[in-house]
Automatic annotation (TrEMBL):
Gene3D superfamilies: D-Amino Acid Oxidase, subunit A, domain 2 (3.30.9.10), FAD/NAD(P)-binding domain (3.50.50.60). Residues 5-346 form the FAD dependent oxidoreductase domain. Keywords: Oxidoreductase. It comes from Edaphobacter dinghuensis. Coiled coil: none annotated. It comes from the Bacteria. SUPFAM superfamilies: FAD-linked reductases, C-terminal domain (SSF54373), FAD/NAD(P)-binding domain (SSF51905). The lineage of its organism: Bacteria, Pseudomonadati, Acidobacteriota, Terriglobia, Terriglobales. GO terms for molecular function: oxidoreductase activity. GO terms for cellular component: cytoplasm. The keyword Nucleus does not apply. This is D-amino acid oxidase.
Length: 373
């Protein structure tokens, strides 16, 4: 078989979610992956399912995607480790408490539940946080998962509905419904989805920037932490587009381990850990939770987020009517996988989408290039 209704290039969590959505809709699906499915950026991520409000379009997509995760919740196997932990955005001072109230207003306008915590309340929720923090914002319906097994679940569901996984060769070129693999063979499809993460082999001109990140995981310390914690300064860190930065971000795992982040680096495409920025990241975490300094970290790794200039993913058709994009999700690929997959399936099946797909269309690239001169 070398002809498909939908051919997906890349079997990370985005590609696997697209495969599941399209296969369940009755389309003949193929997935091209040269490496281990879910073994790239998907395996390197934290697995935080979070509603973010950097822009109205980001809020709409993350809120929609989180709702799709919630619909899946009872179907997911235990290996996905879905836990409704909630997020606490931690405010260090009164200036950040003002951001807490602003954030709550934005969430309320979008129908997202959140609870303002004062200094005593956040200390009660997370006793290991340092004393004297101003408070925070609890978003109770955010969750955590283990991303590689979630991708495996999506892929298995797709294959149960007839999708075919094509391993061993990478796609090197596309053109009007034809994909050429690195062995010279070709596959044909009426619709091709490019979901290759940081790999821009097919469209090297696409405006995407790698942002290297570090994560550390500890030994098992059950009940040390209840929620995913993120400092409000994380947003300032994420907004920096040229400087390296770190922020406090910690996640409890079902194993009792603690996953500690986060860092952002530009122009560093080496996979090895950078000791200086790793030290800065862990010091930042210990500043918020001093007891972390007495725990044992057992592994450190890096990964690459891929960001667009306007911090929104590319989801939708290109100038080639057979080529569609699902790329540029930065740190929200795990959250947004089901939403992106549903939007593309809606496009293929001529269905009305539940949210406006316009802000994510790749056609805005030309407008951005004009705007940037």
């Amino acid at each position: 078989m070398n002809s498909f209704d939908v051919l997906i290039l890349g079997a990370g969590i985005i590609g696997c979610a697209c495969a599941r959505e399209c296969a369940q809709a009755g389309l003949k699906v193929g997935i091209v992956e040269v490496n281990i499915p879910g073994g790239g950026a998907t395996a390197a991520g934290m697995g935080h399912l979070v509603v973010m409000d950097d822009s109205p379009a980001q809020l709409a997509l993350t809120r929609y995607s989180r709702s799709l995760w919630q619909e899946l919740m009872t179907q997911l196997p235990p290996t996905v480790e879905y836990e409704n932990r909630g997020t606490i955005w931690v405010a260090a001072d009164e200036e950040e408490m003002a951001e807490v109230h602003a954030k709550q207003n934005i969430y309320a306008s979008a129908g997202v539940d959140s609870i303002v915590l004062d200094s005593a309340a956040i200390a009660s929720e997370e006793p290991e946080l340092r004393a004297g923090l101003a408070g925070g914002l609890l978003v109770p319906d955010d969750a955590v998962i283990y991303p590689p097994t979630a991708a495996a679940y999506f892929l298995a569901e797709a294959m149960q509905h007839g999708a075919l996984l094509l391993r061993g060769h990478a796609a090197v070129k596309t053109g009007t419904g034809v994909v050429t693999l690195d062995d010279g063979s070709t596959l044909t499809s009426g619709r091709i989805i490019l979901a290759t993460g940081a790999d821009k082999t097919i469209l090297p001109w696409l405006p995407l920037q790698k942002r290297k990140g570090h994560l550390a995981i500890t030994d098992r310390y059950p009940n040390f932490l209840r929620h995913q914690l993120v400092e409000l300064g994380y947003l300032k860190s994420a907004h920096k587009i040229t400087e390296d930065s770190v922020a406090f971000n910690i996640q409890p795992r079902t194993t009792g381990q603690l996953l500690i982040g986060s860092s952002r680096q530009y122009g560093n495409e080496y996979a090895a850990a950078d000791n200086a920025i790793l030290r800065e990241m862990l010091n930042r975490a210990c500043n918020y939770m001093p007891a972390l300094a007495h725990l044992s970290a057992i592994r450190v790794w890096t990964g690459f987020r891929v960001a667009t200039p306007d911090k929104l993913p590319y989801i939708g058709p290109t100038e080639d009517p057979t080529l569609f994009l699902a790329m540029g999700f930065e740190g929200l690929g795990i959250t947004n996988a089901p939403g992106a997959a549903r939007l593309l399936a809606d496009e293929f099946l001529n269905r009305q989408s539940e949210i406006d797909p316009t802000p994510y269309l790749p056609s805005r690239v030309a407008r951005m290039e004009v705007a940037h001169g």
